[in-house]
Sequence to fold (603 residues):
Amino acid sequence: MPAIIQLLPDHVANQIAAGEVVQRPASVVKELLENAVDAGADQIRLIVKDAGKTLIQVIDNGKGMETSDARLCFERHATSKIKEATDLFRLYTKGFRGEALASIAAIAHVELKTREADTELGTFVRMEGNTLVKEEQIATPKGTSIAVKNLFYNIPARRNFLKSTSVETRHIINEFQRIALAHQDIAFSCYHNDNELYNLAPGNLRQRIVAITGKKTNEKLVPIEEKTPIAEIRGFVYKSEFSRKKRGEQFFFVNNRFVKSAYLNHAVMSAYEGLIPSGFYPGYFLYLQLPTESIDINIHPTKTEIKFEDEKTLYAIIRSTVKHSLGQYNVAPVLDFNRDADLDVPYKYKDQQLREPTIRVNPDFNPFKKEAQKTPSSFGKGPTQHWESLYTQTDAVHAETNAQKTSEALFSDTATNAATFQIHRKYLISSIKSGIVYIHQHLAHQRILYEEYLKNSTIKEAVSQQLIFPLEMTFDSQDINLVKELKEDLEGIGFLFDKISDSAVFISGVPVNVDQEQVNDIFEQLLDDLKNDLPESSFSQIDGMAKSLAKSLAIKTGTPLTGKEQEAIVNKLFSCKQPELSPYGKKTFVTINLEDIDTLLKH
Fold:
């Protein structure tokens, strides 16, 4: 019987390794930027075209490589970071697998230019599918320039599984931001399709955070700093009033390596307990420095997950440090979010002594005498005769008023004889010929708004309400570029733009059914939804935008509705083209036939 176990050819083994290391263009960006940081560069430039599908190039001024290293770096398991197995548990550098460049070269065309500082000529190496195509000596600046072209050119199935250009670009920018935030002493720049996205000068941590997230971030930051025998913690957290409904800027770095940890995130959230409403999330930029032997970063291929030796103690340290800083900067004492500021004691009266009020009585005051002088009495000859009739007439007036109120309650829109009913402030019940229909008010309103926005964006006849003063909203450069792409579509549904700068958007008009206070939350939700999955076609962009806006503006569960509002939702829902489903495919209503009701009530 022939043997069935065979050794894989090198090109197949390299493609399998590439599948583990290179999941998308952002994976290549991460590996190349980390190599540039490890090379000791203080200036790193990232150039991307077509979301990395056509070109990913990283240029640094690090120490460079000699000729033999330039060729050897493309071999599997070739690394300068590890010499023995124990080195895996005391890592101070970024990359160390020894598979990154070999895996990238297996699925792309790679060109490497590198030169050490003490040599006159550098080395040029071209690889195609892990095959050496060209190697020669060239004149090149000190450092390394590596260009990855035509990613996944020999694995079309992997290339077809990539997301849209906008989504892949977002992943690339995320990786760039993480590495730039971890190394504030290095100058970074980023270009996409010849457009400069970032140009970050070296500076301190606060300056780097503000440069990436926008100028408005500076006022949100509360500094964090704590040194213990177990760990050193520094960084910034957001003030509680700047918490958002979406997880925005949340960054954990351990020994200058970005990590994801639900456990540590819970420690920060617990420090904000009682400070932010339920469903809101704070932003933070926290840097932990721990002994390398107390952590294990080999539990995940991308090295973004980490295991700590003493998690419980670290949890307690983070929680107490964040809570202490919030209290130190007068953030924590404000616990009551629903208090009425009008009831606060003014500062100028705060420390004054209370004085007992004086009562002044006029002994000559006679109300009957004064009344008699003003108007003659109609109740009798004297001013005090038949005074009991005053109370009789007053009672009659009160009785008439009460009767009127009762009548209004009986025949108001919310009375029990209305055509529709609302139960538990969640469902609407309406009778139909065949039985009863139960309508989910939130999902039904989503469908109504969704079709309205699609119609308005198509015919460009949406009605807007002008704002007295333009509303300013600050975003990072990634979100600003997305707003610019969607500007025309947003104008089609009623948003009017005064101007769009490099860090802010100025809104001068909003759709008629949108309050000014909602605009910021609406845009945050919209950008977050579209960044997660923004298809290529313009119609799909409009569709995604309409879905997001409908979800944000639809009547929420728990909102009481008048009879007229209930009837309006029922009528508009059944005027929709597809009333039975919400924009996200959930049922908007169910019907119960009279036969089913009769069956339930049979004894």
